[in-house]
Amino acid sequence: MSKALSAPLDSCPYVFFSGEDEHRPGRSDGLDFGFLHSKTIYDAGHDKELVFKIKGLEAVDPAIRQLTSLRWQQQSTGVFQNSICIIGDHSTPVEYGDYSFKPVTFLSCS
């Protein structure tokens, strides 16, 4: 998963999903968890850097598209099931340069 997110402009790299082959069986209960925290967008909010915040969001979009494409390819085999949840822990608008009461975006697909 980290390869898919770290090279969003490249062609899709091979990404391992646990349980995919006998050499990497994953957990016996089938529950694995991956976490990605994009500090760039967060820092741009604190620094009141609108251009960097926009560029950071634009860079994340292709990475998410690539990850969801790989997820779809894997799930279309009928063997694997997984979910993706994308959420911010809080908003950091460039207008304030600090946390705010504003709601955060939430996206989930299963």
Automatic annotation (TrEMBL):
The keyword Kinase does not apply. It comes from the Eukaryota. The keyword Transcription does not apply. It holds the Pfam family Metalloenzyme. InterPro entries: Alkaline_phosphatase_core_sf, Metalloenzyme, Pglycerate_mutase_ApgM. Residues 31-107 form the Metalloenzyme domain. Keywords: Glycolysis. One of its GO terms (biological process) is glycolytic process. GO terms for molecular function: metal ion binding; phosphoglycerate mutase activity. Pathway: Carbohydrate degradation. It catalyses: (2R)-2-phosphoglycerate = (2R)-3-phosphoglycerate. Belongs to the BPG-independent phosphoglycerate mutase family. A-PGAM subfamily. Catalyzes the interconversion of 2-phosphoglycerate and 3-phosphoglycerate. This is Metalloenzyme domain-containing protein. It comes from Heracleum sosnowskyi. The lineage of its organism: Eukaryota, Viridiplantae, Streptophyta, Embryophyta, Tracheophyta.
